Amino acid sequence: MKKRRIKGIQMIPYGLLAGVMTEDSIEERQREVRLTEISSEGFRIRLCRRGKAEENIYPKAFKICFYQMDQAEYREIEIRHFQIEAGEQTEFYQAYDIFTVQEDYKEAFQKLCVEYSRYISLKLEEDDAREYQMDIYHTVLLKDVIMRNQIRNVPFLENLVRFLADNTGKLISANSISKYMKSQGESIASAAIINYISFLCEAYILHKVNRYDIHGKRIFETNDKFYFEDNGIRNAIAGGTREGDIEKVIENIIYQNLIRLGYQVYVGQLQAGEIDFVCTKPGGERIYVQASYIIADDATREREFGNLRAIKDNYPKYVISMTPLLTKNDNDGITHLHLRKFLTEGI
C-alpha cells in the first residue's frame, strides 16, 4: 500500500538545505541529491537520469544538512532508518520519496520551518535595504565624484557604474567600455572613461585590480578587473540579489576579505588561463586563490584546481567555495576552503 504523498515545503533554497546519498556498494559511493520537497514525515529527492534505461538506486543512508542561521553553520542529520518509494519520472530525472520516523530528523525539520520563515522575512525586507543602500550610493556619488570633479555627463557616469557592477570580476579595458557604450548609442572617448573610473576609485566606490604575469613576473597596464568597496551597494546598483550574480558576489566578497587580511591583490595571468587572485605581502609572502560558488562536478573541479596546478612554484594555493559539507581539505597540495571558514578564520 502506497504511503501518503509528502506535502511540505517545496524548493527550499540550496543554501538552507542540502543532501547527500550514500549508496550501498563496495565503495559506499556518495552522491549529491536535490531535495525538492520536505515535511515532518520525510523528503522528496530528484536524481538526473543516466541514459534512457531506468536506474535502480540502493541507498544505504542519507545525510541531510540543515542550515542554522543563529549559529551560521549546518547541522547534519544522518538518515539510516527509512522507506523509499519511486515517484515521478521524466526523460531527464527520477523522483523518490524518502519516509523516516527518526526523531532528530523531525526536530531538525521543525527548526527548518522557523529558519525558512526568517529567510522569507529577510527577503521581504530587501526592498527597504536596497533603497537605503542606493541613498548612500547617490550621496557619495554626488559629493565625492560629481561635485568634487565637476562632472557634467552624469547620465554616462551612472551608466558606467551600472556596467561595472554588472561586470564585476571580468577583465575590462577603457576601449572595451567605449565600444560597448557606442553600441548603446553613446559615444565617449577612452581617455574620459579612464578619468571617470579613477574618480570612482578615489571615492572608494571601486577598487581597480591589475593583472600580474605569473611566469614573466610583471604587471600588465591594460585589461583590469574592478571590485566594489561595498557588496550590498554593488548588488543594489546591479538590480538586487540576482541568482545569476552569485559568482560575482562571492568573488567580490573574497577580494574584500583578502584586502582586510593585508594582502596586495592582483589578477594572475597564465599562458593559458587565469588565477582569480595573486596575493602578496611585504617580505615575499605570496598565495594564490581561486573563487568558486559550488564545485559539484569534475569539469568545475578541473577548471578551478587545474589552473593552480599549472603554477610550478611552492607558494600556498587555495580554492574558496560554498560547496556544502566542506570545512577544509587538501587536493594535490591545494587547500579547498569553505567561504564561511575563510571569512571567520582567514587563510
How would you sum up this structure, described in words?
Helix content is 36%, strand content 31%. It is built from 9 helices and 18 strands. It has helices spanning 103-124, 126-149, 154-166, 174-183, 190-202, 231-238, 246-260, 298-309, 339-345; strands at residues 9-10, 17-23, 30-39, 42-48, 59-68, 73-79, 83-89, 93-99, 206-209, 211-213, 218-219, 225-228, 264-270, 273-281, 285-291, 317-321, 328-331, 334-338. The strands form 3 sheets. Strands 1, 2, 3, 4, 5, 6, 7 and 8 form an 8-stranded antiparallel beta sheet that branches. An 8-stranded mixed beta sheet has the order 11-10-13-14-15-16-18-17, with helices on both faces. α4 crosses α5. It is globular and about 70 Å long. The model has no long low-confidence stretch (mean pLDDT 84).
Q: State the distance separating the first and last CA atoms.
A: 54 Å
Shape: globular
The total beta strand count reads 18
Quote the beta fraction: 25-35%
Report Rg: 24 Å
Q: What's the pLDDT, averaged over the residues?
A: 84
Structural class: alpha+beta
Helical fraction: 25-40%
Report the biggest beta sheet as strand number plus sense, adding barrel if it closes.
8 strands, antiparallel
Query: What is the N-to-C order of secondary-structure elements (H for helix, E for strand)?
Result: EEEEEEEEHHHHHEEEEHHEEEHEEEH
Low-confidence stretches: none
How many helix segments? 9
SSE diagram, text form:
Blueprint: E1 9-10, E2 17-23, E3 30-39, E4 42-48, E5 59-68, E6 73-79, E7 83-89, E8 93-99, H1 103-124, H2 126-149, H3 154-166, H4 174-183, H5 190-202, E9 206-209, E10 211-213, E11 218-219, E12 225-228, H6 231-238, H7 246-260, E13 264-270, E14 273-281, E15 285-291, H8 298-309, E16 317-321, E17 328-331, E18 334-338, H9 339-345
Parallel strand pairs: 10-13, 15-16, 16-18
Antiparallel strand pairs: 1-3, 2-3, 2-5, 3-4, 4-8, 5-6, 7-8, 9-12, 10-11, 13-14, 14-15, 17-18
Helix pairs in contact: 2-6, 3-6, 4-5
